[in-house]
Design a protein that fits this description.
The complex is a heterodimer of chains A (185) and B (99). Chain A has one domain. Chain A contains 10 helices and no strands. The chains are: A mainly alpha (185), B mainly alpha (99). Chains A and B meet through helix 1, helix 2, helix 3, helix 4 and helix 5 of A and helix 1, helix 2, helix 3, helix 4 and strand 1 of B.
């Protein structure tokens, strides 16, 4: 339970947290889960790139700002035309989400702790639904949709032959190769 | 052991965020990086959906989770909010297990 809460405080990027928990919960190794979490967190680096000129943070404030660089804060900040409003949107969204996200995690951890068999509540079906909901907004174009379908098929195909969690790493390597090769061509 | 994974993954995720804010812009502005990185979450999330629905450990399994995913998909297509999608999936699995 403490570990769940630590994830929300320390990692604070939802998809990565779900991935780590999902891989370990599915019987995978801790390190496969950690690698999947880090790979999912790679997009935050690109968000940081877009935000850095917008926020103009240095020194200690940058150290704090970095923790808030996630999907939601980036979306709220870049949607404003006025740089002052952008900065306000970033910090306000970051702080509000950080507090609510951690309260929600605590509530969920306490509630889950109270049930001996999470399957009765269908909690094993919750993560795939959550991943699907996170995935959907990224599928507006044909290419990501094709990549998503291919990734799902390949993951299922290799799953019986490699340790749990490793299919994700295979997918990450394949999609990176695809991305790099496609751009250089 | 799990704590180590939690800490290492958290540090890695934070490092990536800080790198985005700190690294010289041109590093990450490389077109290969720009066009590849957004594809990684798409592929990983899709793989997670597939593996968490159709497997237990290393075994492929077809159970109520598949139906739950179907309901979640309908919720997503109806543009339901995140929590509604998750609850719809979990509730479907729970109900089917009761029957």
């Amino acid at each position: 339970m403490l570990q769940t809460c630590a994830l929300s405080v320390l990692m604070f990027t939802g998809a990565s947290q779900f991935a780590l928990v999902g891989v370990i919960g599915g019987g995978g190794s801790v390190w496969a889960g950690a690698a999947a979490a880090a790979l999912l967190g790679s997009r935050n680096a690109l968000y940081g790139l877009r935000l850095s000129s917008l926020l103009g943070v240095r020194g200690r404030r940058r150290v704090i700002a970095a923790h808030f660089v996630i999907d939601e804060t980036t979306a709220m900040a870049i949607a404003r035309d006025d740089p002052n409003l952008s900065r306000f949107a970033f910090w306000a969204t970051g702080a509000a989400l950080f507090i609510l996200w951690n309260l929600g995690t605590l509530g969920g951890a306490v509630a889950a702790h109270a049930f001996s068999n999470p399957k009765v509540l269908g909690l094993d079906a919750a993560p795939p639904a959550a991943f699907l909901a996170l995935l959907a907004p990224r599928l507006r174009a044909r290419e990501p949709l094709a990549i998503a379908l291919a990734a799902a098929v390949v993951a299922i195909a290799v799953l019986p032959f490699v340790p749990a969690g490793v299919p994700l790493l295979i997918i990450a390597v394949l999609v990176s190769l695809y991305g790099v090769l496609r751009t250089t061509r | 052991m799990i704590w180590a994974g939690v800490l290492v993954a958290s540090v890695a995720c934070y490092g990536l965020k800080l790198a985005g804010l700190s690294l010289p812009q041109r590093w990450l502005q490389d077109t290969r990086v720009q066009r590849t990185v957004p594809l990684i979450p798409v592929a990983l999330l899709a793989a997670l959906v597939a593996t968490q629905t159709f497997s237990t450990g290393q075994h492929l399994v077809l159970d109520v989770r598949a139906a739950a995913l179907g309901v979640a998909l309908i919720a997503v297509l109806l543009r339901a909010p995140f929590l509604v999608v998750v609850v719809a999936g979990a509730a479907t699995a729970a109900l089917l297990r009761l029957i």
